[in-house]
Every structure is written in C-alpha cells, then in structure tokens.
Amino acid sequence: MFHVVDTNIFDRPLLDELCELTTLVRTVAKPTEGARGLQRLAPTRRAMLYFTQPSTRTFLSMNNACHILGIRTSEIRHPEVSSEVKGETFEDSIRTFSSYVDLIIMRTPEAGYAARAAALMDSIPRPVPIINAGSGKDQHPTQALLDIYTLERSFEDSGGIDGKTIGMMGDLKRGRTARSLSRLMRHYEGVRLVFIAPDGFEMEPDIKAFLAEHNIPCEETGRLHEILPELDAIYVTRIQSEHDVDDESSAVNLAPFTVGTHELGLLKESAVVMHPLPRGPEITIEVDQDPRAMYWRQERNGMWMRVALIAKIFDLDQEIRDLASGLG
User: Which of 71, 108, 198, 283 could form a disulfide with 66 if both were Cys (CB 3.0 to 4.6 A apart)?
Assistant: First the structure.
C-alpha cells in the first residue's frame, strides 16, 4: 500500500488487518510506556497536511495520528497562503511539498485532485505517498475506513458487518462519506443497503450501478419510519449546503429525515446510529444520551484508524505488534 486515493485499494483481508491493527494501536497507547514506544517508531518522518477545504475532525485526527507515531507535521490550511495564489500550478505545488516531507495528506473542495497528486508522484524520482482526506463530492476513503471499524466494533458480538441491513440517510447525492462507505460494502457478505433521502438528494446512479454490479441489494425510500425497524445501523448525513448552486438546500424539509427520541423508539435495541459529523438538525441532541449513538465514538475511532493506516503505509505494523508483545 502506497497511495490512499480511493476505496478501490482495499479488500476484505486488508480491511480486517487494519481493524485489528487499529485495536492493537489503541491498546499499546494506553500505558505511558506503550505511548512512548509508538512515538519512537517514526521520529525522522515528516508529513504535510494540505487542507484547502475547511476541516475540523479530519485535520485534527490526521495531525494527531502523525504525532502518535512521532511524525512531525507541517500544514497549509488556506490556498491563499500557497504559491498557487501567485500562479503556481497545483502539480508544481505538490512536487514542492514532496521535496520536504515523506507523506502528503490532502483535502480539497474539488474532486480528483488527490488522484492527480498521486499520478504526479508516480512519475517523479522521489515519490511520497498521498492520502486523500476528502476530495470534492466524490471520495473520502479514510472516513470510510473508520466507519467500517466502528461498524465492526459495534457488531463484534453479532458476526460483524456481514448480514446487516444498513440505512444511509440525508444528502446522499453530494455526501462523499456515504459514497465511499457504500463502495466498501462489496467486501461483506449478505449486506443490504437502504438509501433514505429527500427528493433531489438521492444517491447518484454510479453508486447504484456499482452496487448492482457487485450483487449488493439496495433500495430507496423517503419513508424513514417505515424502514427504521428493519435497520441494524443508520448512517445519518447532513445536507451539504456548501455545494449548493441555487440555494437548493434551503428548500429541504428535514423533519421526515431526522432522528430523535421517537425514531429511537422504532429502532432495534441492538442497532446503532452513526454520523460523520458535523451534524445539523438531522440528529437531535437527545439522541446523544442513547447507548446506540455511536457518532462520538466514531469520531474517536477516526484518529486510531488513521494511526493504523499511516503505520501500514510506512511498514510499521510489525513493530507495533512487537511493542504489544513487549507490554505483555
């Protein structure tokens, strides 16, 4: 594994390995001795966080994931502080960054930029890995990884993700997190997907065609209350108003697509509620107190999964296993 641009690089064995490594990293990091051992794994490595799209969770979790492994970080958070404002091309900027660091983690409002950066790296003498931390409306592979980990942990006593019915609700047309997670479902047996969206915000045809190609049953509905009792998990997303062209988000009535105390009463006791955050009114704060609410744990899982992913990229996984063995 070198670049992490989209979900296509992951298969079931790798997903299982990353989930196992994530749990191992968390265990090793608990005692002070283990945390110090992790920081000694990559102290000579450097990472660039090139985030030209606003981000809180992904930026902080990526930054701290690097620090857990002892990797030093630098950052660009706004395009106006890059030489691109002087007319430098995107490719020249990326190649400049690669001269100084060993890893580039990037998030852009435009789709396809991480793929462009990876293609450039593959053509130069000293390439560095590219991690896509969100690319326009298209892909968010590391979010999909932490979602997989959260689902697996939530269902560890009931066979994992295999055989589960998972609902995805909200702005599915423009929500890259639901798109990426849907693609990873091809690696699990017996999964059924239900897409729940307001009119005009339904899942795009390319994802539905992808699911059909891989024989993953999916259905669409606008009737949340009718489908809730059948779900093992509901993955709620906000309306992506930053992608509006004609202020179309303002016309959406979210009332039929909101999870509150009444909706919790319709869910199975064993079901989980997830959200990639930040949330809007689509999940009421009362839900936070319910043990089925997994989104804060999901957020925490993101940092640890990203530690595991970066460790895998730099071939540190065996050293982490050795650390775990040394801690007894």
Answer: 71
